[in-house]
Amino acid sequence: MEAGEYRKMFEVEDTLWWHRGLRLFFADAIRSAALPADAVALDAGCGSGANMALLGESVPRVVGCDLVERALLFARLRGLKRLVAADINRLPFREGSFDCVLCSDVFECEEVDERHAISELARVTKRGGRLIIGVAAYQFLLSEHDRAVHSVRRYTKARARTAFAIPALRIVRMRYRFGWVLLPVVLYRMVRRRQDGTGLPRSDLFLPSRFLNALLFWIVRWERSVSRWLPLPFGTTVLVELRRV
Q1: Domain 3-244: which topology?
Q2: What is the pLDDT of residues 6-51, one digit of tens each?
Q3: Alpha helices of the chain — where are they, by DSSP H?
Q4: Partners of 98 in beta bridges
Q5: What is the signed CA dihedral for 19, 21, 25, 26, rounded to 10 degrees?
Q6: Domain coordinates of the chain in residue numbers?
Q7: How, if at all, do strands 169-177 and 40-44 pair?
Q8: CA–CA dist 186, 140 (Å, integer)
Q9: What are phi and psi of 44, to 5 degrees?
């Protein structure tokens, strides 16, 4: 991720509709994992810490790691502890250290080796523990935003199933999320492509108007409610829940 993007993330991720909506979906996945009362969790690629804080609402001990020290500086501004500078391809934790591992918007990054990373996440997860992974969907949506955050790949459910298919893991659930906002996102990316410059890339991390931000978050909450009986076969994010065997 470009250096300036960490500050932008820190400034918007508590209020931006997309980040808030993603945490709703993660909260559901964490709750369905039925973690023990003394669980220990890892946020692998914790960035500036909002998802790590979410884990802390359900899990008594949470560790966060990120490759970039600048990201950890912002996480510390949240008052978060147990932060480690670490490469997801070579995690510095013992086997079976965590009951739950959360990994959001990391596998897309050019610094990540998919096979090494998923093997490492599985290795540090306890047998019977839960691994929750969120990845961006659809390669055709690669844009200036992805260049700004160093993303080089996006996923479909089929690609995610292949990428995370190792003997140590079993898929519990895999769904597309943010399906009801897919069309507006596609249109927005098409407009942005016409405006993209050749200089330093810019991400989509900004707050829209208060009304639009609230409207989009309402749509995501509505999707969360109806997806229990009407999951959509498309979306801007693939959410994968796996169990360590």
Answers
A1: Rossmann fold (3.40.50)
A2: 899 999 999 999 999 999 999 999 999 999 999 999 999 999 999 9
A3: 3-12, 17-32, 50-56, 69-77, 114-124, 144-148, 157-163, 182-195, 210-226
A4: 125
A5: 20
A6: 3-244
A7: unpaired
A8: 9
A9: -90, 110
